[in-house]
Design brief:
Blueprint: H1 3-26, H2 33-37, H3 40-60, H4 68-72, H5 74-87, H6 93-110
Helix pairs in contact: 1-3, 1-5, 5-6
Family: Belongs to the EamA transporter family.
GO molecular function: transmembrane transporter activity
GO biological process, one term: lipopolysaccharide biosynthetic process
């Protein structure tokens, strides 16, 4: 497997975890507006997004641009699974259908 594909997959995972951190921060209440934006979750989340951006740009060097949106769409699946693990969000039939369509599209594209 191409190293650039692995870097892009890692970048998608990093961005997914960053979204979870930012959602965790949004669920809390803070005593001041400054603490709302300057806390571990927000700084860590945006730092991870920044890292993900650099990893994604690096991976663009070795990939065809037609492959990138397909790999990036895995972020939807990862975020759904992480939301289930960290926030106990229910995975409904509608969500499963959406994920099946995304994964089916990836499967069809790579066959």
């Amino acid at each position: 497997m191409n190293m650039h594909i692995l870097v892009l997959l890692f970048s998608v995972c990093v961005a997914s975890f960053a979204q979870i951190l930012l959602k965790k921060s949004a669920a809390k209440t803070y005593d001041s507006p400054i603490r709302e934006y300057l806390n571990f979750y927000v700084i860590g989340g945006y730092g991870m997004m920044f890292l993900s951006m650099f990893l994604t740009v690096f991976s663009y060097r070795g990939l065809d641009f037609s492959n990138i949106p397909v790999i990036e769409s895995l972020g939807y699946v990862i975020v759904m699974l992480l939301s289930y693990l960290f926030f106990k969000e229910k995975i409904t039939k509608r969500k499963l259908l959406g994920m099946a369509i995304i994964l089916g599209g990836i499967f069809v594209y790579y066959r």
